Protein backbone atom coordinates (compact mmCIF):
# COMPACT_ATOMS: atom_id res chain seq x y z
CA UNK A 1 0.00 0.00 0.00
CA UNK A 2 1.30 3.40 -0.81
CA UNK A 3 1.60 6.10 1.80
CA UNK A 4 -1.23 8.30 0.48
CA UNK A 5 -3.64 5.36 0.65
CA UNK A 6 -2.59 4.58 4.23
CA UNK A 7 -3.02 8.24 5.20
CA UNK A 8 -6.43 8.41 3.51
CA UNK A 9 -7.57 5.16 5.19
CA UNK A 10 -6.38 6.42 8.59
CA UNK A 11 -8.22 9.71 8.03
CA UNK A 12 -11.43 7.88 7.15
CA UNK A 13 -11.13 5.56 10.16
CA UNK A 14 -10.36 8.52 12.45
CA UNK A 15 -13.34 10.40 11.07
CA UNK A 16 -15.75 7.51 11.63
CA UNK A 17 -14.27 6.70 15.05
CA UNK A 18 -14.69 10.34 16.05
CA UNK A 19 -18.27 10.34 14.73
CA UNK A 20 -19.03 7.16 16.69
CA UNK A 21 -17.50 8.41 19.92
CA UNK A 22 -18.39 12.10 19.87
CA UNK A 23 -20.96 12.61 17.06
CA UNK A 24 -24.42 13.87 17.90
CA UNK A 25 -27.77 13.96 16.09
CA UNK A 26 -27.64 17.77 15.97
CA UNK A 27 -24.51 19.95 15.80
CA UNK A 28 -22.77 21.66 18.73
CA UNK A 29 -24.60 24.91 19.59
CA UNK A 30 -22.08 27.72 19.36
CA UNK A 31 -21.95 29.95 22.43
CA UNK A 32 -24.09 27.77 24.70
CA UNK A 33 -22.16 26.26 27.66
CA UNK A 34 -21.54 22.55 27.20
CA UNK A 35 -21.07 19.96 29.92
CA UNK A 36 -18.01 17.90 28.90
CA UNK A 37 -18.74 14.18 28.56
CA UNK A 38 -17.08 10.84 27.90
CA UNK A 39 -16.62 9.33 24.45
CA UNK A 40 -19.68 7.36 23.25
CA UNK A 41 -21.71 7.89 26.46
CA UNK A 42 -21.40 11.65 26.89
CA UNK A 43 -22.72 12.62 30.35
CA UNK A 44 -24.87 9.53 30.94
CA UNK A 45 -22.65 8.20 33.74
CA UNK A 46 -22.49 11.56 35.45
CA UNK A 47 -26.25 12.06 35.22
CA UNK A 48 -26.54 8.68 36.91
CA UNK A 49 -30.10 7.84 37.99
CA UNK A 50 -30.99 11.33 39.27
CA UNK A 51 -30.99 13.50 36.17
CA UNK A 52 -33.06 16.33 37.63
CA UNK A 53 -30.87 16.66 40.72
CA UNK A 54 -27.54 16.37 38.89
CA UNK A 55 -28.58 18.89 36.22
CA UNK A 56 -29.77 21.28 38.93
CA UNK A 57 -26.30 21.03 40.48
CA UNK A 58 -24.68 21.95 37.14
CA UNK A 59 -26.45 25.33 37.11
CA UNK A 60 -23.76 26.72 39.46
CA UNK A 61 -21.06 26.01 36.91
CA UNK A 62 -22.76 26.28 33.51
CA UNK A 63 -25.64 28.69 34.13
CA UNK A 64 -29.39 28.09 33.79
CA UNK A 65 -29.29 26.73 30.22
CA UNK A 66 -26.62 24.36 28.89
CA UNK A 67 -26.10 21.63 26.32
CA UNK A 68 -25.31 18.05 27.26
CA UNK A 69 -24.26 15.09 25.17
CA UNK A 70 -26.26 12.01 26.15
CA UNK A 71 -24.81 9.27 23.98
CA UNK A 72 -25.28 10.51 20.44
CA UNK A 73 -28.05 12.97 21.29
CA UNK A 74 -27.44 16.62 22.00
CA UNK A 75 -29.87 17.92 24.60
CA UNK A 76 -30.45 21.45 25.88
CA UNK A 77 -31.34 21.38 29.58
CA UNK A 78 -33.34 24.38 30.91
CA UNK A 79 -33.22 24.64 34.69
CA UNK A 80 -34.61 27.83 36.21
CA UNK A 81 -38.08 29.35 36.46
CA UNK A 82 -37.34 32.32 34.19
CA UNK A 83 -35.34 30.41 31.58
CA UNK A 84 -38.18 27.87 31.29
CA UNK A 85 -40.60 30.77 30.85
CA UNK A 86 -38.38 32.14 28.05
CA UNK A 87 -38.26 28.91 26.04
CA UNK A 88 -41.59 27.26 26.88
CA UNK A 89 -43.90 30.30 27.06
CA UNK A 90 -42.33 33.27 25.27
CA UNK A 91 -41.19 30.98 22.42
CA UNK A 92 -44.04 28.50 22.56
CA UNK A 93 -44.74 28.48 18.83
CA UNK A 94 -41.13 27.40 18.21
CA UNK A 95 -41.01 24.80 20.97
CA UNK A 96 -44.02 22.76 19.90
CA UNK A 97 -42.78 19.34 18.78
CA UNK A 98 -41.62 16.21 20.57
CA UNK A 99 -38.65 13.94 19.80
CA UNK A 100 -38.90 10.27 18.96
CA UNK A 101 -37.03 7.92 21.28
CA UNK A 102 -36.08 4.41 20.16
CA UNK A 103 -37.55 2.29 22.97
CA UNK A 104 -40.87 4.04 23.29
CA UNK A 105 -41.55 5.00 19.71
CA UNK A 106 -40.18 1.93 17.95
CA UNK A 107 -40.69 -0.92 20.40
CA UNK A 108 -43.52 -0.03 22.81
CA UNK A 109 -45.81 1.93 20.54
CA UNK A 110 -45.87 0.08 17.26
CA UNK A 111 -49.43 -1.26 17.63
CA UNK A 112 -51.60 1.36 19.40
CA UNK A 113 -49.72 4.38 18.03
CA UNK A 114 -48.30 7.20 20.15
CA UNK A 115 -50.09 9.08 22.88
CA UNK A 116 -50.66 12.79 22.26
CA UNK A 117 -47.89 13.62 24.72
CA UNK A 118 -45.34 11.58 22.77
CA UNK A 119 -46.31 12.67 19.25
CA UNK A 120 -44.16 14.97 17.15
CA UNK A 121 -46.13 18.03 15.95
CA UNK A 122 -48.04 17.45 12.71
CA UNK A 123 -51.62 17.75 11.44
CA UNK A 124 -52.69 14.52 13.15
CA UNK A 125 -51.21 15.55 16.50
CA UNK A 126 -52.89 18.94 16.18
CA UNK A 127 -56.30 17.28 15.58
CA UNK A 128 -55.89 14.80 18.43
CA UNK A 129 -54.73 17.52 20.84
CA UNK A 130 -57.69 19.67 19.80
CA UNK A 131 -60.17 16.82 20.36
CA UNK A 132 -58.70 16.11 23.82
CA UNK A 133 -58.51 19.80 24.73
CA UNK A 134 -62.17 20.33 23.80
CA UNK A 135 -63.22 17.31 25.84
CA UNK A 136 -61.16 18.51 28.81
CA UNK A 137 -61.79 22.26 28.85
CA UNK A 138 -63.23 24.01 31.89
CA UNK A 139 -66.98 23.75 31.07
CA UNK A 140 -66.58 20.13 29.91
CA UNK A 141 -64.77 19.21 33.12
CA UNK A 142 -67.57 20.80 35.19
CA UNK A 143 -70.04 18.47 33.48
CA UNK A 144 -67.93 15.47 34.60
CA UNK A 145 -68.21 16.30 38.31
CA UNK A 146 -70.84 13.55 38.89
CA UNK A 147 -68.11 11.03 37.95
CA UNK A 148 -65.70 12.59 40.41
CA UNK A 149 -68.50 12.53 43.01
CA UNK A 150 -68.98 8.79 42.42
CA UNK A 151 -65.31 7.79 42.31
CA UNK A 152 -64.23 9.82 45.34
CA UNK A 153 -67.17 8.43 47.32
CA UNK A 154 -66.31 4.84 46.40
CA UNK A 155 -62.67 5.28 47.48
CA UNK A 156 -63.46 7.10 50.72
CA UNK A 157 -66.14 4.55 51.63
CA UNK A 158 -63.63 1.75 51.13
CA UNK A 159 -60.99 3.59 53.20
CA UNK A 160 -63.57 3.99 55.98
CA UNK A 161 -64.42 0.32 56.01
CA UNK A 162 -60.85 -1.05 55.47
CA UNK A 163 -59.37 1.15 58.20
CA UNK A 164 -61.93 -0.10 60.75
CA UNK A 165 -62.60 3.36 62.07
CA UNK A 166 -58.94 4.36 62.07
CA UNK A 167 -57.67 1.17 63.78
CA UNK A 168 -55.78 -0.20 60.77
CA UNK A 169 -53.18 1.88 58.92
CA UNK A 170 -53.55 1.78 55.14
CA UNK A 171 -51.49 2.36 51.99
CA UNK A 172 -53.71 4.81 50.08
CA UNK A 173 -52.20 4.14 46.63
CA UNK A 174 -54.62 1.64 45.04
CA UNK A 175 -57.72 3.55 46.22
CA UNK A 176 -56.57 6.69 44.36
CA UNK A 177 -55.25 4.87 41.32
CA UNK A 178 -58.74 3.51 40.79
CA UNK A 179 -60.16 7.02 41.33
CA UNK A 180 -57.99 8.46 38.55
CA UNK A 181 -58.32 5.48 36.21
CA UNK A 182 -62.10 5.11 36.53
CA UNK A 183 -62.61 8.83 35.92
CA UNK A 184 -60.57 8.62 32.69
CA UNK A 185 -62.15 5.33 31.57
CA UNK A 186 -65.68 6.63 32.05
CA UNK A 187 -64.86 9.85 30.21
CA UNK A 188 -63.30 8.03 27.30
CA UNK A 189 -65.17 4.71 27.01
CA UNK A 190 -68.29 5.16 29.18
CA UNK A 191 -66.98 2.20 31.21
CA UNK A 192 -65.71 1.87 34.78
CA UNK A 193 -64.08 -0.87 36.81
CA UNK A 194 -66.71 -1.84 39.34
CA UNK A 195 -64.43 -4.05 41.44
CA UNK A 196 -62.64 -3.18 44.65
CA UNK A 197 -59.14 -1.75 44.83
CA UNK A 198 -57.69 -5.25 44.24
CA UNK A 199 -59.55 -5.74 40.94
CA UNK A 200 -57.48 -7.71 38.36
CA UNK A 201 -58.03 -5.28 35.45
CA UNK A 202 -57.10 -2.33 37.66
CA UNK A 203 -53.92 -4.14 38.69
CA UNK A 204 -53.05 -5.12 35.12
CA UNK A 205 -53.54 -1.57 33.77
CA UNK A 206 -51.63 0.13 36.58
CA UNK A 207 -48.81 -2.41 36.37
CA UNK A 208 -48.41 -2.22 32.58
CA UNK A 209 -48.78 1.56 32.38
CA UNK A 210 -46.13 1.96 35.08
CA UNK A 211 -43.82 -0.28 33.03
CA UNK A 212 -44.54 1.62 29.82
CA UNK A 213 -44.00 4.92 31.58
CA UNK A 214 -40.51 3.74 32.52
CA UNK A 215 -39.74 2.95 28.89
CA UNK A 216 -40.93 6.48 28.07
CA UNK A 217 -38.58 8.01 30.56
CA UNK A 218 -35.73 10.16 29.31
CA UNK A 219 -33.39 8.73 31.94
CA UNK A 220 -34.19 5.02 32.00
CA UNK A 221 -33.16 3.78 28.57
CA UNK A 222 -29.52 4.19 27.60
CA UNK A 223 -30.26 2.41 24.33
CA UNK A 224 -32.20 5.55 23.31
CA UNK A 225 -28.91 7.44 23.39
CA UNK A 226 -26.31 4.80 22.51
CA UNK A 227 -27.52 2.88 19.43
CA UNK A 228 -24.84 0.21 19.88
CA UNK A 229 -26.56 -0.93 23.08
CA UNK A 230 -29.67 -1.87 21.09
CA UNK A 231 -27.79 -4.89 19.75
CA UNK A 232 -27.87 -6.76 23.04
CA UNK A 233 -30.31 -4.81 25.18
CA UNK A 234 -32.84 -6.91 27.09
CA UNK A 235 -35.02 -3.83 27.45
CA UNK A 236 -36.41 -4.16 23.91
CA UNK A 237 -37.81 -7.61 24.74
CA UNK A 238 -39.33 -6.36 27.98
CA UNK A 239 -40.82 -3.37 26.18
CA UNK A 240 -42.38 -5.66 23.57
CA UNK A 241 -43.93 -7.79 26.35
CA UNK A 242 -45.52 -4.71 27.89
CA UNK A 243 -46.82 -3.69 24.46
CA UNK A 244 -48.58 -7.06 24.03
CA UNK A 245 -50.16 -6.88 27.49
CA UNK A 246 -51.27 -3.31 26.79
CA UNK A 247 -52.84 -4.30 23.45
CA UNK A 248 -55.09 -6.80 25.25
CA UNK A 249 -56.85 -4.28 27.49
CA UNK A 250 -56.78 -1.39 25.01
CA UNK A 251 -58.50 -3.56 22.37
CA UNK A 252 -60.91 -4.89 24.99
CA UNK A 253 -61.89 -1.35 26.03
CA UNK A 254 -62.43 -0.15 22.45
CA UNK A 255 -64.22 -3.28 21.25
CA UNK A 256 -66.43 -3.26 24.34
CA UNK A 257 -67.51 0.29 23.53
CA UNK A 258 -68.18 -0.60 19.87
CA UNK A 259 -70.38 -3.52 20.98
CA UNK A 260 -72.33 -1.31 23.37
CA UNK A 261 -72.84 1.25 20.58
CA UNK A 262 -74.15 -1.48 18.25
CA UNK A 263 -76.60 -2.65 20.91
CA UNK A 264 -77.59 0.93 21.74
CA UNK A 265 -76.37 0.42 25.32
CA UNK A 266 -73.47 2.89 25.34
CA UNK A 267 -73.09 5.86 27.68
CA UNK A 268 -71.96 9.28 26.34
CA UNK A 269 -68.15 9.40 26.15
CA UNK A 270 -65.31 10.96 24.16
CA UNK A 271 -64.50 7.97 21.93
CA UNK A 272 -68.19 7.15 21.46
CA UNK A 273 -68.87 10.72 20.33
CA UNK A 274 -66.08 10.47 17.75
CA UNK A 275 -67.17 7.03 16.47
CA UNK A 276 -70.76 8.23 16.07
CA UNK A 277 -69.89 11.57 14.46
CA UNK A 278 -69.97 11.06 10.66
CA UNK A 279 -68.03 14.32 10.18
CA UNK A 280 -65.25 13.39 12.65
CA UNK A 281 -61.82 13.99 11.19
CA UNK A 282 -60.10 11.30 13.25
CA UNK A 283 -59.27 7.84 11.91
CA UNK A 284 -59.08 4.53 13.84
CA UNK A 285 -55.38 5.00 14.71
CA UNK A 286 -56.08 8.49 16.05
CA UNK A 287 -58.99 7.15 18.06
CA UNK A 288 -56.66 4.59 19.64
CA UNK A 289 -54.11 7.30 20.38
CA UNK A 290 -56.72 9.34 22.28
CA UNK A 291 -57.75 6.21 24.20
CA UNK A 292 -54.15 5.48 25.11
CA UNK A 293 -53.62 9.08 26.22
CA UNK A 294 -56.71 9.10 28.40
CA UNK A 295 -55.86 5.78 30.05
CA UNK A 296 -52.24 6.67 30.78
CA UNK A 297 -52.06 10.43 31.34
CA UNK A 298 -53.73 10.73 34.72
CA UNK A 299 -52.97 7.27 36.04
CA UNK A 300 -49.62 7.89 37.74
CA UNK A 301 -49.74 11.66 38.02
CA UNK A 302 -53.00 12.31 39.89
CA UNK A 303 -52.46 9.53 42.49
CA UNK A 304 -48.78 10.44 43.04
CA UNK A 305 -49.83 13.98 44.01
CA UNK A 306 -52.73 12.80 46.11
CA UNK A 307 -50.86 10.23 48.11
CA UNK A 308 -47.75 12.36 48.67
CA UNK A 309 -50.09 15.10 49.90
CA UNK A 310 -51.71 12.63 52.32
CA UNK A 311 -48.28 11.41 53.45
CA UNK A 312 -47.22 14.97 54.26
CA UNK A 313 -50.46 15.97 56.00
CA UNK A 314 -50.23 12.89 58.25
CA UNK A 315 -46.63 13.66 59.25
CA UNK A 316 -45.79 15.77 62.34
CA UNK A 317 -44.65 18.64 60.04
CA UNK A 318 -47.90 18.47 58.08
CA UNK A 319 -50.21 18.25 61.06
CA UNK A 320 -50.73 22.04 61.46
CA UNK A 321 -51.39 22.31 57.70
CA UNK A 322 -53.96 19.52 57.92
CA UNK A 323 -55.74 21.31 60.77
CA UNK A 324 -55.52 24.68 58.99
CA UNK A 325 -57.09 23.12 55.88
CA UNK A 326 -59.84 21.53 57.97
CA UNK A 327 -60.56 24.87 59.65
CA UNK A 328 -60.65 26.60 56.24
CA UNK A 329 -63.14 24.01 54.95
CA UNK A 330 -65.49 24.35 57.93
CA UNK A 331 -65.19 28.16 57.90
CA UNK A 332 -66.16 28.24 54.20
CA UNK A 333 -69.12 25.89 54.77
CA UNK A 334 -70.36 26.31 58.36
CA UNK A 335 -73.92 25.21 57.56
CA UNK A 336 -74.46 21.46 58.04
CA UNK A 337 -77.18 21.63 55.40
CA UNK A 338 -74.59 22.67 52.77
CA UNK A 339 -71.41 20.77 53.66
CA UNK A 340 -68.16 21.15 51.73
CA UNK A 341 -68.50 17.45 50.77
CA UNK A 342 -71.25 18.43 48.29
CA UNK A 343 -70.35 22.07 47.58
CA UNK A 344 -66.87 21.16 46.27
CA UNK A 345 -68.53 19.60 43.23
CA UNK A 346 -69.99 22.90 42.09
CA UNK A 347 -67.42 25.49 43.11
CA UNK A 348 -63.80 25.89 44.16
CA UNK A 349 -64.12 28.44 46.93
CA UNK A 350 -61.71 27.33 49.64
CA UNK A 351 -58.51 29.26 48.76
CA UNK A 352 -56.41 27.38 51.33
CA UNK A 353 -57.22 24.01 49.76
CA UNK A 354 -56.47 25.40 46.28
CA UNK A 355 -53.15 26.69 47.62
CA UNK A 356 -52.54 23.30 49.25
CA UNK A 357 -52.85 21.30 46.03
CA UNK A 358 -50.79 23.88 44.08
CA UNK A 359 -48.01 23.49 46.63
CA UNK A 360 -48.29 19.70 46.41
CA UNK A 361 -47.96 19.95 42.61
CA UNK A 362 -44.88 22.18 42.98
CA UNK A 363 -43.22 20.37 45.84
CA UNK A 364 -43.37 16.87 44.35
CA UNK A 365 -43.20 17.94 40.66
CA UNK A 366 -44.11 14.36 39.77
CA UNK A 367 -42.63 14.58 36.25
CA UNK A 368 -39.26 16.02 37.33
CA UNK A 369 -37.87 16.09 33.79
CA UNK A 370 -40.90 17.23 31.80
CA UNK A 371 -41.93 15.48 28.57
CA UNK A 372 -39.22 16.35 26.04
CA UNK A 373 -39.67 18.93 23.28
CA UNK A 374 -38.10 19.64 19.89
CA UNK A 375 -37.96 23.15 18.45
CA UNK A 376 -39.29 23.77 14.94
CA UNK A 377 -37.81 27.29 14.64
CA UNK A 378 -34.58 28.86 15.95
CA UNK A 379 -34.81 30.39 19.44
CA UNK A 380 -32.60 33.25 20.72
CA UNK A 381 -31.19 33.00 24.23
CA UNK A 382 -28.81 35.65 25.60
CA UNK A 383 -27.13 36.23 22.24
CA UNK A 384 -27.03 32.53 21.29
CA UNK A 385 -29.15 31.12 18.47
CA UNK A 386 -30.42 27.64 19.33
CA UNK A 387 -31.27 26.12 15.94
CA UNK A 388 -34.54 24.45 14.92
CA UNK A 389 -34.49 20.70 15.46
CA UNK A 390 -32.88 20.92 18.93
CA UNK A 391 -34.15 18.62 21.69
CA UNK A 392 -35.00 20.37 25.00
CA UNK A 393 -35.45 18.92 28.48
CA UNK A 394 -37.26 21.13 31.00
CA UNK A 395 -35.87 20.41 34.46
CA UNK A 396 -39.24 21.06 36.12
CA UNK A 397 -37.90 19.98 39.50
CA UNK A 398 -35.06 22.55 39.38
CA UNK A 399 -37.38 25.31 38.10
CA UNK A 400 -39.95 24.55 40.81
CA UNK A 401 -37.19 24.71 43.43
CA UNK A 402 -35.61 27.88 42.01
CA UNK A 403 -34.93 30.15 45.00
CA UNK A 404 -34.91 33.28 42.82
CA UNK A 405 -38.62 32.65 42.18
CA UNK A 406 -39.82 30.73 45.25
CA UNK A 407 -38.69 31.91 48.66
CA UNK A 408 -37.45 29.01 50.79
CA UNK A 409 -38.31 26.45 48.06
CA UNK A 410 -37.37 23.42 50.18
CA UNK A 411 -40.14 24.30 52.65
CA UNK A 412 -43.60 22.86 52.06
CA UNK A 413 -45.75 25.94 52.48
CA UNK A 414 -49.20 26.41 50.87
CA UNK A 415 -49.21 30.01 52.19
CA UNK A 416 -46.85 30.99 49.36
CA UNK A 417 -49.84 30.77 47.00
CA UNK A 418 -52.06 32.92 49.21
CA UNK A 419 -50.18 36.03 50.18
CA UNK A 420 -47.49 36.63 47.57
CA UNK A 421 -47.12 37.55 43.90
CA UNK A 422 -47.47 33.83 43.20
CA UNK A 423 -51.18 34.01 44.06
CA UNK A 424 -51.81 36.27 41.06
CA UNK A 425 -49.02 35.61 38.56
CA UNK A 426 -49.66 33.39 35.52
CA UNK A 427 -47.85 30.08 36.00
CA UNK A 428 -47.91 28.84 39.61
CA UNK A 429 -45.43 25.98 38.92
CA UNK A 430 -44.28 23.76 36.06
CA UNK A 431 -45.84 20.51 37.27
CA UNK A 432 -48.10 20.62 34.20
CA UNK A 433 -45.34 21.82 31.88
CA UNK A 434 -46.05 25.08 30.04
CA UNK A 435 -46.88 26.69 26.71
CA UNK A 436 -48.04 25.15 23.46
CA UNK A 437 -47.88 21.51 24.58
CA UNK A 438 -48.80 22.04 28.22
CA UNK A 439 -50.90 19.34 29.89
CA UNK A 440 -54.44 19.43 28.46
CA UNK A 441 -55.76 17.53 31.48
CA UNK A 442 -54.81 20.19 34.02
CA UNK A 443 -58.40 21.44 34.64
CA UNK A 444 -59.57 17.87 35.19
CA UNK A 445 -56.58 17.05 37.39
CA UNK A 446 -57.08 20.23 39.46
CA UNK A 447 -60.75 19.39 40.01
CA UNK A 448 -59.85 15.81 40.93
CA UNK A 449 -57.27 17.04 43.43
CA UNK A 450 -59.50 19.73 44.94
CA UNK A 451 -62.50 17.40 45.38
CA UNK A 452 -60.42 14.56 46.79
CA UNK A 453 -58.64 16.78 49.33
CA UNK A 454 -61.81 18.61 50.46
CA UNK A 455 -63.58 15.28 50.96
CA UNK A 456 -60.66 13.43 52.54
CA UNK A 457 -59.87 16.25 54.97
CA UNK A 458 -63.58 16.63 55.84
CA UNK A 459 -63.83 12.87 56.37
CA UNK A 460 -60.66 11.90 58.24
CA UNK A 461 -57.90 12.97 60.51
CA UNK A 462 -54.72 11.54 58.97
CA UNK A 463 -52.34 10.10 61.55
CA UNK A 464 -48.75 8.79 61.37
CA UNK A 465 -48.49 4.98 61.09
CA UNK A 466 -48.31 2.95 64.28
CA UNK A 467 -45.38 0.94 62.92
CA UNK A 468 -42.39 3.19 62.21
CA UNK A 469 -41.39 0.98 59.27
CA UNK A 470 -44.52 2.24 57.45
CA UNK A 471 -43.51 5.90 57.69
CA UNK A 472 -43.49 7.75 54.36
CA UNK A 473 -40.37 9.30 52.83
CA UNK A 474 -41.28 12.94 52.11
CA UNK A 475 -38.31 14.49 50.30
CA UNK A 476 -39.29 15.23 46.69
CA UNK A 477 -36.65 13.06 45.01
CA UNK A 478 -35.92 10.56 47.78
CA UNK A 479 -39.63 9.67 47.92
CA UNK A 480 -39.39 8.21 44.42
CA UNK A 481 -39.07 4.41 44.45
CA UNK A 482 -37.87 4.35 40.80
CA UNK A 483 -35.56 7.36 40.35
CA UNK A 484 -35.30 6.88 36.57
CA UNK A 485 -39.05 6.69 35.98
CA UNK A 486 -40.80 9.36 33.92
CA UNK A 487 -43.40 9.94 36.63
CA UNK A 488 -42.56 9.66 40.29
CA UNK A 489 -43.54 6.34 41.89
CA UNK A 490 -43.95 7.10 45.62
CA UNK A 491 -42.29 4.59 47.96
CA UNK A 492 -44.86 2.46 49.78
CA UNK A 493 -46.10 3.75 53.16
CA UNK A 494 -49.13 3.55 55.42
CA UNK A 495 -51.02 6.15 57.45
CA UNK A 496 -54.08 6.18 59.71
CA UNK A 497 -57.53 7.39 58.55
CA UNK A 498 -59.50 8.29 61.69
CA UNK A 499 -63.06 9.47 60.93
CA UNK A 500 -63.64 13.01 62.22
CA UNK A 501 -67.42 12.60 62.51
CA UNK A 502 -68.53 9.12 61.52
CA UNK A 503 -72.25 9.96 61.51
CA UNK A 504 -71.84 12.90 59.15
CA UNK A 505 -69.46 10.94 56.90
CA UNK A 506 -71.84 8.00 56.54
CA UNK A 507 -74.64 10.45 55.70
CA UNK A 508 -72.55 12.25 53.04
CA UNK A 509 -71.53 8.92 51.51
CA UNK A 510 -75.10 7.69 51.27
CA UNK A 511 -76.27 11.01 49.76
CA UNK A 512 -73.56 10.75 47.10
CA UNK A 513 -74.36 7.07 46.48
CA UNK A 514 -78.02 7.93 45.97
CA UNK A 515 -77.15 10.77 43.57
CA UNK A 516 -74.70 8.72 41.46
CA UNK A 517 -76.38 5.30 41.37
CA UNK A 518 -77.22 5.69 37.67
CA UNK A 519 -73.52 6.06 36.84
CA UNK A 520 -72.43 2.75 38.37
C1 LIG B 1 -51.70 15.92 38.43
C2 LIG B 1 -51.92 15.35 37.28
C3 LIG B 1 -51.14 15.61 36.02
C4 LIG B 1 -49.87 16.11 35.86
C5 LIG B 1 -48.89 16.53 36.95
C6 LIG B 1 -49.61 16.17 34.43
C7 LIG B 1 -48.44 16.64 33.87
C8 LIG B 1 -48.22 16.75 32.50
C9 LIG B 1 -47.01 17.27 31.91
C10 LIG B 1 -45.80 17.75 32.68
C11 LIG B 1 -47.16 17.24 30.57
C12 LIG B 1 -46.15 17.73 29.52
C13 LIG B 1 -46.41 19.20 29.27
C14 LIG B 1 -45.37 19.94 28.47
O1 LIG B 1 -44.66 19.37 27.64
O2 LIG B 1 -45.25 21.16 28.68
C15 LIG B 1 -48.47 16.69 30.29
C16 LIG B 1 -48.99 16.50 29.04
C17 LIG B 1 -50.25 15.99 28.80
N1 LIG B 1 -51.20 15.65 29.74
FE1 LIG B 1 -51.00 15.75 31.74
N2 LIG B 1 -50.71 15.71 33.77
C18 LIG B 1 -51.67 15.36 34.69
C19 LIG B 1 -52.92 14.86 34.44
C20 LIG B 1 -53.47 14.66 33.20
C21 LIG B 1 -54.78 14.14 32.94
C22 LIG B 1 -55.79 13.75 34.02
C23 LIG B 1 -54.94 14.10 31.58
C24 LIG B 1 -56.11 13.64 30.76
C25 LIG B 1 -56.95 12.73 31.15
C26 LIG B 1 -53.71 14.61 31.00
C27 LIG B 1 -53.48 14.73 29.64
C28 LIG B 1 -52.31 15.19 29.08
C29 LIG B 1 -52.07 15.25 27.65
C30 LIG B 1 -53.06 14.85 26.54
C31 LIG B 1 -50.78 15.75 27.48
C32 LIG B 1 -50.02 15.94 26.18
C33 LIG B 1 -50.12 17.37 25.66
C34 LIG B 1 -49.37 17.54 24.36
O3 LIG B 1 -48.35 16.88 24.15
O4 LIG B 1 -49.80 18.34 23.54
N3 LIG B 1 -52.84 14.94 32.00
N4 LIG B 1 -49.10 16.40 31.49
From TrEMBL:
Heme binds at residue 439. InterPro entries: Cyt_P450, Cyt_P450_E_grp-I, Cyt_P450_sf, Cytochrome_P450_fung. Its cofactor is heme. Pathway: Aromatic compound metabolism; phenylacetate degradation. Transmembrane segments: none annotated. Keywords: Heme, Iron, Metal-binding, Monooxygenase, Oxidoreductase. GO terms for molecular function: heme binding; iron ion binding; monooxygenase activity; oxidoreductase activity, acting on paired donors, with incorporation or reduction of molecular oxygen. Gene3D superfamilies: Cytochrome P450. Belongs to the cytochrome P450 family. This is Cytochrome P450 phenylacetate hydroxylase-like protein. It comes from Bimuria novae-zelandiae CBS 107.79.
